Amino acid sequence: MSQISYVSKKVDGLKPSGIRRFFDLAAQMEDVISLGVGEPDFVTPWNFIEQSFHALEHGYTSYTENAGMIELRKEISTYLSKNYRLRYDPYDQVIVSVGASQAIDLALRAVIDPGDEVIVVEPSFVAYVPTVKLAGGTPVTIQTEAEDEFKLKPEQIEAAITPNTKAIMLCNPNNPTGTFLSKEELEQLAEMIEKHDLLVLSDEIYAELTYDEDYTSFPSITGMKERTILISGFSKAFAMTGWRLGYAAGPAQLIAAMVKIHQYTMMCAPTMAQHAALEALKNGRQSVNDMVESYKQRRNFIVSSLNEIRLKCPNPGGAFYAFPSVEATGLTSSEFAEQLLQEEHVAVVPGNVFGANGEGYIRCSYATSIKQLDEAMKRMKRFVEKRI
Hints:
It contains 13 helices and twelve strands. By secondary structure, the chain is α/β, with parallel strands linked by helices.
């Protein structure tokens, strides 16, 4: 066989995920406390699991509609109305996907033509830039600043606009910084987005995980629903990462385009998982509230602990990540993460994998028990004291 690579240039040019590299390193070591992966430590609530058993026992093992079970789409529509005062027709404005990540991929492929530019606000989820490229678009990154609490400013959008700009990706609360944007801040961004006639892909997977202020869904801002694809899912707030179930809601024309791609590439989301998600929306509120309260306690603990050991850390308004500066140690993000893992067996993610302005920071997920967090902070304190 010839040595010519059959891998496409588009894929060959993508960098491997920086998060996955540290996850793989930690998996090869013993006694590691992982603050690396953005995954709840809670097991999926039992009543959700029971509904998947029920589906199997009653033979619900075939395909569902491409867009997802209509019962689930109706419940998603009700959930969005009740929680965020958004009204979507479940018949043509909602699609159930294989995780929120697939919804992002579908949305980008549905709207991008070659040469289109998509604004990506960094530090950001590591998948945004690669999925824009895979869809044939050109990512244009905006770097938010630590002194602004990593909040996007309207003038930064204006500066990034070119004749080829088509869309902007927003994530609120943000991964990896935990930055939370208020209604007033979103309204300021909306003015600029409307001025330049942009489409918005609003990743709201952490919407339930906010701790200090009421959450505002971006399409609920006046004039934004018609130009926004809302993306969310069940992984984070409902502790269902392994079930791989997400959804998108938006204008019927765009959802139809996403369903067209979905029907050729995925057929439908797993049927048993859809039954579990239906139960999550109908009877999962108390479980979600309990988990959010626990995350808030953990956030308060880890932020206080990081600041005590002189890793300056602002208070994140949402998600389950702390994003402290490691500048005081004199180490780069990667040096800090690698040496901490080797010396103290604590896994964190270097901030630079999320964008250029993530350099000098690390992402610590507090979706782990207080006992584990306490031990991780003791080890980090020992590590930092050797360097300051």
